[in-house]
Design a protein that fits this description.
Mean pLDDT: 81
Number of helices: 11
Radius of gyration: 22 Å
Distance between the termini: 59 Å
Structural class: alpha/beta
Largest sheet: 8 strands, mixed
Low-confidence stretches: 307-360
Order of helices and strands: EHEHEHEEHEEHEHHEHEEEEEHHH
């Protein structure tokens, strides 16, 4: 069911939500959180589709905030709020309100969103594009327990990643970090199978890819070993090589779907490591609302420690050796990373085994 409201108010939107729920025979509110999406008109459809898919796992009230840019000075002085209320089949398993803000009201989006938040329920704010460098100090971000950005969508992703290290506030996270959860889990599990010491690490992937930088920083932070960042043509993260005193451990994914895990003295094994959709990434982030200390520790390790590499190597040969085929998106490639600080693991399978293996 859809209800269109033109030149409306938050009070009228709330009344429309109640009316729509009664009309479809579900007067009770069964949502577990409020998801606020801040985006532009161009990216609104994809963001709303991803949120709708994620709502199957996390029924929520989704508030899509679109700030419309006025073309003339006269229009900028005329404030208006248009809304579209979706309930039932048109909104997945939750409720959706599309808010289009015009004029001066677009500068005070928090005053429109605040009356529409579910009472006594957590709030998550997600910026698919054009995220602020300091999400916690953003007027909308200040309303939330969790603030989700996506550095990969910015024009200079690695520079923004470095800037966010200085503005990090507990509750901040990034989908570039969420994308490497399977990699962290697999590497932690691989190190838990051997009793050896890691001497050096090489992370291979697209240039200017924040997920590659974050994985390199996480490994350097957890293992306290030099980490070299090498380049490949992608897609995304392509290989990680761990040099240990028991032989190399290699996780190689050349096609963006199926990876090969190689451990000295063991047969190679195929591992499903596909590139996940945005809806899967958002669903993962909505599973936890506490601060991600492991992300904070990796982020604060510092992008500046991953210096640019002038060496170009041939593409990976399946053994996990570095491949550097050229830039993909963003800023400068990086290489040796040294120094580290200990940090608590996000999950038992994604952090602690790495720490244990390093200690061994």
């Amino acid at each position: 069911m859809k209800i269109d409201l033109t030149d409306t108010t938050a009070s009228k939107i709330n009344k429309a939500l109640v009316k729509a729920r009664r009309a479809i025979g579900t007067p009770a509110v069964g949502m577990v959180l409020t998801l606020v999406i801040v985006t532009d008109e161009e990216n609104a459809y994809d963001a709303l589709k991803a949120a709708g898919d994620a709502s199957r796992e996390h029924p929520s009230r989704t508030l899509l905030v679109i700030k419309r840019v006025s073309r003339s000075p006269r229009d900028r002085t005329q404030s208006r709020l248009d809304a579209e209320v979706r309930v039932g089949a048109d909104a997945g398993t939750g409720e959706t309100v599309v808010l289009r803000l015009y004029g001066e009201v677009s500068e005070h989006a928090q005053s429109v969103v605040l009356p529409l938040l579910l009472p006594d329920a957590p709030v998550v704010v997600w910026w698919p594009v054009n995220a602020p460098i300091d999400p916690a100090n953003d007027p909308l971000g200040a309303l939330a327990q969790r603030r989700v950005t996506d550095t990969y969508a910015s024009e200079q992703p690695v520079r923004d990643l470095s800037a966010r290290a200085g503005t990090y506030t507990p509750g901040d996270t990034d989908l570039s970090w969420t994308r490497i959860t399977p990699w962290r889990s697999m590497l932690a599990a691989a190190l838990d199978q051997v009793v050896c010491e890691v001497k050096a690490v090489e992370v291979e992937g697209e240039e200017f890819n924040p997920s590659c930088e974050l994985l390199a920083m996480w490994l350097a932070d957890r293992l306290d070993v030099p980490v070299q960042r090498s380049l490949s043509s992608g897609p995304g993260l392509t290989a990680v090589r761990l040099d240990t005193d028991c032989g190399p451990i290699v996780l190689d994914r050349a096609d963006g779907s199926l990876a090969t895990l190689s451990i000295q003295g063991q047969p190679d094994r195929a591992v499903a490591l596909k590139r996940r959709e945005t809806s899967e990434l958002i669903a993962e982030e909505l599973r936890r609302l506490d601060p991600d200390d492991t992300y904070a520790s990796a982020l604060r390790f510092g992008v500046e420690k991953l210096h640019a590499s002038a060496v170009t190597r041939p593409a990976g040969n399946g053994t996990g050796k570095a491949a550097e085929d050229g830039p993909a998106k963003g800023e400068a490639a990086a290489t040796p990373v040294e120094d580290a600080a200990k940090a608590p693991a996000k999950e038992a399978t994604t952090g602690e085994p790495v720490k244990k293996a390093a200690a061994k």
